[in-house]
Amino acid sequence: MATARKAVIGDNNPPEPTPLEASREELSNLELEAGNWFDGAEVENQAQADEVSRLIDTARKAGKRFDGFRKAEKQPHMDAAKAVDTAWKPLTDAAERVAEVGKAALTPYLMAQEKAKREREAEERRKADEAAAEARRLAAEADGSLAAAKARDEAIEAAKAAEAKAAAAEREKAGAKGQGMARTVSLRTTWRGQVTDRRTLLNHIARTRPDDLSAWLDQWAASAIRAGARDLPGVEIYEEKVAA
User: Fold this and answer.
1) Using an 8 Å Cβ cutoff, are 49 and 7 in contact?
2) Per-residue model confidence as pLDDT tens digits over 125-139
3) How do the domains of the chain map onto residue ranges?
4) pLDDT tens per residue across span 41-86
5) In this structure, are residues 110 and 187 in contact, taking their beta carbons and an 8 Å threshold?
C-alpha cells in the first residue's frame, strides 16, 4: 500500500498570478462592465456621461499599467539582445571594413578588365560582321559551280563560328574569383540622381504620377496643421471636435 504524502504549508495556496494573468482578469472585468454601458445607445444625461467618463479613465489607466508590465517583461530580453549586438558588432564591422577596403583596391583592376572585355567584344563583333558580309557576298556572286558553292558554304560556317565567338564575348563577365570563393567579385553598375530643377521634376510628377504627389501633399499638409499651421494655400483647414 502506498504511503500518503504528508501535507505541507502552501498546499491550499495557489501561486500568485503573473502580471499578464492578472491583467487579463482585470481587462475581462472591464470589458464586462463596459459592455453593459456601450450597447449602441447614446448618452442621454450627465449621470451617464460621468459614468462613461469614469470607464474611459479606468481603461486609460489600465492600458498604461498593461504597457508598463509589457515593458518590464520585455526589458531583460532587450538588454540581452543589446548585449549580443554590442559583443558582435566590432567583429561584423571589422569584417565589413576588410571587404570594403578590398573592393576599393580591386576596383581599378576590374575597371581595366571591363575595358579589355569591351575591346574584345568590339573586335569579335567586327569579325562576325565581316564574316557575315563575306558569306552574303559569296552567296550573291555564286555562279553555280561546285567551287563557288563550296566557298559559299565555308563562308557561311565561318560566319556562324564568328557570330558564336562574338556572342560569347558579350556574355563574358569581367571579375576576380579566388580559390574557394562563393562568388566572383565584379563591377556593379548603380544609378544615382541629383535634382537640378525642382520645378521641372515637380511638373513631371504631377503629369505622370498625380496620385503619388497627392498622397505626399496630404501628408505634408497634415503634418503642418499638427504643428500649428492654420492658413495654407490650397488647403481647407477646419476644426473637428472629438472626445479626448
Assistant:
1) no
2) 888 888 888 888 888
3) 202-235
4) 888 899 889 988 999 999 999 999 999 999 999 999 999 999 999 9
5) yes
Cβ-Cβ contacts under 8 Å for 56 (sequence gap 6 or more): 243
What one-character-per-residue DSSP string does the chain give? -PPPPPP-TTTTSPPPPPHHHHHHHHHHHHHHHHHHH-SSPPP-SHHHHHHHHHHHHHHHHHHHHHHHHHHHHHHHHHHHHHHHHHHHHHHHHHHHHHHHHHHHHHHHHHHHHHHHHHHHHHHHHHHHHHHHHHHHHHHHH--S-HHHHHHHHHHHHHHHHHHHHHHHHHH----B--TT-SS-B----------S-HHHHHHHHHHH-HHHHHHHHHHHHHHHHHTT----TT----------
**Residues 6+ away with beta carbon under 8 Å from 49:** 43
Going by C-beta distance under 8 Å and a sequence separation of 6 or more, which residues neighbour residue 240? none
Q: Report the C-alpha gap between 11 and 105 in whole angstroms.
A: 73
The CA-atom distances, in angstroms, between 66 and each of 7, 33, 72 are 37, 18, 10
Amino acid at 146: L
pTM of the model: 0.52
